[in-house]
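Quick one, T. Sequence first:
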Amino acid sequence: MTTKRPPTALEKMGLNSPMALALHLPSRYEDETELFTIEEALGLGRFHSIQTQGVVIRSQVMFRPRRQLLVTIEDDTASLQLRFLNFYPSQQKQMAVGSHVRVRGEVREGYQGAEMVHPTVRAVTPDSPLPASLTPVYPASAGVSQTVIRKAVLQALRDASLKESLAEFLPTKLMAEILPTHDWPPLQDAITYLHQPPADANTQSLLERTHPAWRRVQFEELLAQQISLKRAHAIRRERRAPNFPQLTTQIKSPASIEVGLLKVLPFELTGAQARVWSEIGLDLSNTFPMNRLLQGDVGSGKTVIAALAAARAMDHGYQAAIMAPTEILAEQHYLKMQEWFEPLGVKIAWLSGSLKAREKRFAQEMIESGEAQLIIGTHALIQDKVSFAKLGLAVIDEQHRFGVRQRLEIQQRVGSELFYCHQLMMSATPIPRTLAMTYYADLDVSVIDELPPGRKPIATKVVKAARRDEVISGLHDWLAKGLQAYWVCPLIEESEVLQLQTAVESFEQLTQALPNFKVGLVHGRLKSDEKAAVMAAFKANEIQLLVATTVIEVGVDVPNAALMVIEHAERFGYAQIHQLRGRVGRGSADSVCILMYAEPLSLAAKERLQTLRETSDGFVIAERDLSLRGPGELLGAKQSGDAMLRFVDLQRDAWLIELAQTAAERLLSEHGDLVERHLERWLGSRTEFLKA
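Structure tokens:
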């Protein structure tokens, strides 16, 4: 019986083939092609790494002030001290007195003169030749040394199979027409160059990944992604879905739910809402499934559009489902839909994880029998036990909060081989244009870019935590005018308990400081009905100040609450503050958001607060967020563990995306035989993650 060999450290990193190793490209380089005397190194190596060599004349372990290895080397010009705070017996052996070593590091001023702390050390003979190319430094995981990776990559580059794997097959004529310059090297040459750049290479362009060799690799990767997305788009159009055309005037009976809803609504649709609704209405009348993303800032009126789409599906005898990532948000949708639809006789089912078993069963039976026309809930809707009688539309709110796998599951869950339902996704976090072009190519996007009439812009102020008493005094004056306010406590990811503690402390302090006003507290640990009771009291103005954790990021609309104080604003991300801020400004009063921060501020936090003070444009904020967090996190794909794009930076390389789109269209229409080869080379089994 053969026992299965455990994977090697390299295989655990996914480096299990010559191709995988060839595509494991360096993150930076070290220049070991130049050698300086110790005297030169002492002068030139003050702010950057420099290489020198010499004979070890002293090597000793010191125990004060802490255990450390001190080594002195010298050549004909001078001597230099090397200091190691963490070291192994093998290193001591390597740097025994009389050994000849080559060292590389930055020269600093130590207690006993100039020294290198933890330099890279290599045992050499005095006349050992210098490398002809720059030394690559690779991304590595714990326990895998650079030497092991370098050796494996070198071996892979010599492997005969690699020549075939990296062969040129993109048509020369097509490439010449599309590519901006002709100095991009063939793929194999580009990859070899990136692993072994010559000594005179432009290190700046290599590090910034703008070198022609990098450009060739990035273009190929983007091309694979765009082909994958365009094919997904074409496949979707071949699928079948029920079509829901608008009912004609003759048929429009008083029984039409869509007509009834428009009558029940206490407001007219804004111009942007009307435009978006006609785009969605057109999608619903197609015989292939809609896949649309509806974007709009908090309070722009996305829920109304979702309700109209649901009404259209129900008018045609189909069910509609609305799914939200948190119970509090799903509950808000439920209450809103009840208010609008129950007068019209629509049967609504509610399904969430916290329901008792009996209530769950009852809801599942209503859904399965078709009695429930509209179903609202959390991700409990995509559990195996739930089967829909006739689902025609799925609405997913705050879609980025669901992971990629969950969204794929929704698509597969509600569909079958023969039949798919329409899908509408909603987000208050705008998706930057570059992200939409690369990951959402199979998605039609609608934007509500107009706020309802009467909504006022929100003034944002940034204040130090040391001025907390001033903020509380201003809050007193605000509440005295009859207005309400939110006080949001910081997000402390590590511990919900700590977060709760902070909220409770702030609640107690504010209750004491504002004895004339009623202060309420809401947090994630409260039961749903307790949360709802506090929120309802706040809405009814029985509570004037609501102290809350981030559970109110998505909460009830309280037009009278026009002030928000966010404590420790430096701990929140762009999107989160933008979402929270959107809770105010819903009435006629001038609205203010105060971002209170504790010093010292990191540069990133400083920039973040500055941006939020200057702009309330969701798209500007989204672009900044993208540059900070990267696409994986914004897409809800970070948890999948799959790198989204390995070599492309969406902001730096945005111009490449359009080239890749053009090339993908041409390749699909003119060279269908090459498409599979290209996808296999770049994506293997990862294509589904690109269809986020």
